[in-house]
# Entry
Amino acid sequence: MIKEKEDRKFSRNFSRREALSTAGKVAAGVIIAGVVAGVGGYYAGSMAGAPATVTETKTVAAGAATVTVPTTVTQTKTVEVVKGLKVVMGMVLGGYIEGSTWDGRQIKAVERLKQLYPWFDYVYDEGVVLKGKDPISSAKDLITVSGANIVFGSWEPAAIPAFHSVSQEYPDVYFLGIVGSDISSQRNFLRVFIRQYQAMYLEGLVAGAITQTNKIGIAVGPACVQNWRRMAAFYLGIKDANPNATLYVKYVGEWYDPPKEREVSQSLVDLGVDVLTHYTDSVEPLKVAEERGIWFVGKDSDIVGLYGWGTTDTVAISFDTRWEVLFYHVLKEYLAGTKYPDRLIFLGMNHHIPLPGDNPWVPGETILPAVDLQNNNKIGLDAISPKARRLISDDVLSLIDRRRTQMLIGAYDPFSEHAIVSSGEGIPIPELGLDVPPKGTVVKPAGVMPTDDWLLGKLNFQLDGIVLVK
# Structure
């Protein structure tokens, strides 16, 4: 049964997808693709339309040097919303909303868009994958019963393979699916994700700076591309802040297994880890950090400010994934009548939506990047716990601020700057003919941005220097 947002009933605490996440496109040079639109458009029935781009030369600060690089600049036009038009997003949610920083945060995103755009609405069907419901049936109900003209699958199994067939039955509907390792698409079936790893690199800078034992740990769910990409960005940040720090990882094996998550977290702390994060979906790792008096690093959403989980006495830093920026991008294409939109949409910190200054989410801010440091409803350097910030040198604070600023304008990406070297630990992907690169293999040299395909589905190993606890 499709639940409307006004009368939804939460089922139980659960997290997000089994899908692998994605990583993606940073063009050579600098991409500045922030969307510029007047605040009045949110209340006057207009919005930024499909942008054209021009190439110019721009001088930016890149670390210690100043360089001149080619820059792609967005030029936007206004798309007038036809009076009486209603755009409805139907959400095929793989998991449940309550207690979730994944499906739950995506619902917060569409709730925000509804406040900004009176002509926008949404409906959803939750727990589709977990309940074993057919995603095709869910999508069709959202379209035929609730009038959805955009359908979103929040987990990869909620969209693949179902949306390949149903998108052909409804050629005028946009279908969106979270990218895992499979980036297949159709003309009106788009694969989408947000470049979370950029914020995780910044979290790594914080973690490296605040550890006193030089031991940082991750309780990891399954061994998969998504998690190797996450730990890679986090590790690169740690080493940039503190070359003497060591990252320890231990696998839980599942996204959601509270007893095992607790056991793995405890074992990492027993090794001397004093900064802990997790790539799993229960709150047990946070509870362990609170009980053991160590620092915790959040993921996916602002767990303190948006969910009230923990305090900044334990949560040193977190980040927030602003799915509303991604959905805005798709709405813009839909309203422009684009028949052949980009099939892979992967937005980073340099993509944003405009906000009124009196907005209730980040008061005083007039833009909302697709992903950013956020903790206890504060952003940027202010998102660092006051207690943790006292442990960070001015040099590292300056580095965090500089790297964040560079990523906000598209002038930096950790996977471009650093070499990617294999530890020899990983899993072969035989269907792609991929073995695990031997230890010490430089798979990607410094100064080269990996391709989307590689980041999405071929990073099948841990970085050299990360210690696997078995």
The radius of gyration is 21 Å. Residues 1-77 have pLDDT under 50 and may be disordered.
